[in-house]
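Researcher: Sequence of AraC family transcriptional regulator follows. Predict its structure.
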Amino acid sequence: MIEYLPRSKHQAELYVTQFGAEECVPGHDFGPAVRNHYLLHYILSGEGTFEVGGTRYRLRKGQGFLICPEVVTYYRADSANPWSYCWFGFNGTLAEWHLKQAGLTLSSPILEYDRDDRISQYLEWMFESRDYAKSRETRLTGLLALLLSELAEFGPAAASGEKGSRAELYVDKVKDFIELNYDRNMTVEDIAHFIGLNRSYLCSLFKRTMNVSIQDYLIRYRMNKACEMMGNAELSIGDIARSVGYGDPLLFSKIFKKLKGASPKHYRSGTDVQ
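Model: Prediction complete. Tokens:
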């Protein structure tokens, strides 16, 4: 039972290429061979072996293995207790990132998931998506994303060497939060609460990593966004101020002039401030 799908023309970040399931006969094998996409196998019953990079893994029900693009692999069902498995083929610019969140990489290709039958449920839903004539591709991508989120939440932790430092993770969270919320009236305390760290500790960590305080980073980000909006003639200076989180246009103008060396009005017109 297998279904192949054409390459997505609309969803370059993450898309399904195939999925299926098979009850293997004793000794059934595949490879050595390479694939041009990611292929995630999950064992429903039985046993078998998976080989990649000179390492052989003995696997059973509740485990699985990841095949990465252009990597030689070989796998074989056990002769006495052959496995049955399902698989999900996919690709996209964010595929590797999603897999890393689940702790699955070329150097760590083994999946551990035995808490429930959710993975086989996602496979069933994928087959049932045939009923969605207009939106099947979107539904399949959504189901794949849900599957990967399940593995990230309950699968093995990503290798520490590939996660980056804890400081970098917290700094990235601060930057992401500011990017998504700079238009709101927020404080550094709000950011710290969202991330779940003590305000003083987070500020110290951010300053040490970025050589700028969170408050200054937020102000600079807002003013740079304001500069981008200056080209929109439909927006007044007050509109721009509110759009970057300042309810008081006078305060916005004062901060803008201090940072950019000209008032918003002069900056927009391109004339020098006197």
